[in-house]
Amino acid sequence: MFAAVNSMGLLGIDGFPVRVEADISQGLPSFDVVGLPDAAVRESRDRVRAAMKNCGYTYPVSRITINMAPANVKKVGSLYDLPLLVAILKASGQLAVDTDRFAFIGELSLLGEIRSVSGVLSMVIAAREQGFTAVFLPAENAAEGAVVEGITCYPVPTVTALVEHLLGLQPLKPASEWIGEVGPAPLPPDFEDVMGQGVARHVMEIAAVGGHNVLLIGSPGAGKSMLAKRLPGILPDMTAEEALEATKIHSVAGTLPGGIGLLRERPFRSPHHTVSVAGLTGGGTTPRPGEVSLAHHGVLFLDELPEFTRQSMESLRQPLEDSKVTISRVNATITYPCTFMLIAAMNPCPCGFFGHPSHPCTCSPQAVRRYLSRISGPLLDRIDLHIEVPPVQYEELASKKKAESSAVIRERVNKARAIQNERFAGTNITCNAHIPDSQLKKWCPVTAAGEQLLRDVFDKMGLSARAYNRILKVARTIADMDGAEQIDLPHIAEAVQYRSLDRKYWGE
Ligand SMILES: Nc1ncnc2c1ncn2[C@@H]1O[C@H](COP(=O)(O)OP(=O)(O)OP(=O)(O)O)[C@@H](O)[C@H]1O
Ligand SMILES: [Mg+2]
Q: Each residue of 77-114: pLDDT tens digit?
């Protein structure tokens, strides 16, 4: 006997339909899976057999052949346990119901419980596009399914519950009725704790508004890590589209916090400096999004930048430029988006006090040079805002007054980001930092005085074309914060100023 049921698969962050066909025929008992299954899919057999037995069904002692179509795409993971079981139940005549417009996703335990899988959000979206009316998925993934409108998702606790639902004996509750209240996320640390540091605070605000990359240089204890960790609290709200895209990636990577269907806060990733290149940019034998993609529409924070390996730093160049990572495998090419803000922090030398106003630096000039040269020029060139974080003054630190809070800053950031959302409506540009170079003239009109300053600076500072473009984008952000439509001289002057530190430390 033959039966086929629908399931879904994942390619990068997008889902695609998979048809699981089961054929049961006379012959020596066997179980073969064809259609490019990976090891986890081949192991399904044992889980399916045990789950069927423990739920009171008969595992057919015959020749079982499973085919998974399309046959030319690799099927990865344990999510095919459930469709396999349903297909065998149907092919062996133990479940006579029409499942043609349903899709099944889920891993099985030996007792027949359904366990969570990754990538549910993308798969449910693809199932809706296929015109399926319902998806049966693991209860733990209910929140992700509930996000998608226009298709019913049934969280399934056990095989028995699924069969009872399909037979019309005991209906399952759809995911939309399932979702309990998720408590508010813990608040990130607040900018009101940062005393003084006027310039650094202002630069973090510019970065948040325009999505620009920042390099913080300063002596130990100056407050670099402190400033960076407070950035999430002032980032602009995500648009619905951004939230969906960011959530897809976390769903695929299996890093969505429990009970969360849609990310509301921009992601903030701070990988340790021992992270591998694959961990940073994505890849591995079973491809997985890297930190750059997990930071999609959010922040990638690299603390103690010189401690990262040369290869990891170099590996960031392409993702920073293209906002996507492409991974090639024999059977498929996978693309993970990565539109992120890079925030990096570092000391200026091994002892940390080079350039400190009062504390002497004990490093030789060669040691300082060697330390700074760990940061590659091309990476530096991709960072729009370079700032020195000076040690905080005693008077400021001891002051009883609280500094401006994140909530107040965030309100301003949201206002300035709204200007960009309106400006870039209908395009795929998300913020000023990601204006394609070819469209700079269109989005960044400069006054005559501003033009003059740009020309002078370009010649005097020997800027690269990329540095020039990036100055223009930062100036666009500063003008937006100023409410100005045209970029004027003061906006250019300020943007240039944040671009001059690399000369002090890395210049001759
Ligand atoms: N401007 C400030 N206002 C209040 N507290 C501060 C300020 N700057 C630093 N601190 C205090 O100093 C501590 C150390 O700061 P932080 O860890 O950010 O230093 P850092 O610059 O990252 O140093 P390192 O180079 O060693 O990593 C903070 O946890 C905070 O308590
Ligand atoms: Mg630090």
A: 899 999 999 999 999 999 999 999 999 999 999 999 99
Fold of 191-403: Rossmann fold (3.40.50)
Output the CA 304–ligand 1 centroid distance in Å. 13
Model confidence pTM above 0.85 = yes
Atom of ligand 1 nearest to the CA of 219: 25
CA 491 to CA 471: how far, in whole Å? 10
Helices 465-482 and 406-423: angle between axes, nearest 10 degrees:
110
Encode pLDDT of 416-439 as tens digits: 999 999 999 999 899 999 999 999
| Partners of 154 in the β-ladder | 136
Two structure tokens written together for 426: 């209908």
Output the CATH code of domain 2-177.
3.30.230.10
For the Cβ of 316 lying below 6 angstroms from any atom of ligand 1, the answer is: no
Q: Is residue 348 within 6 Å of ligand 1 at its C-beta?
A: no
CATH 3.40.50.300, the chain: domain bounds: 191-403
Q: Judge: domain 435-508, CATH 1.10.287.70.
A: no
Q: What is the dihedral of CA 286, 289, 290, 295, to 10 degrees?
A: -170
What is the percent of the chain where pLDDT is above 90?
A: 72
Ion ligand 2: residues, Cβ under 5 Å: 225
Distance (angstroms) between ligand 2 centre and the Cα of 349 equals 14
Domain span(s) for CATH 1.10.8.60 in the chain: 435-508
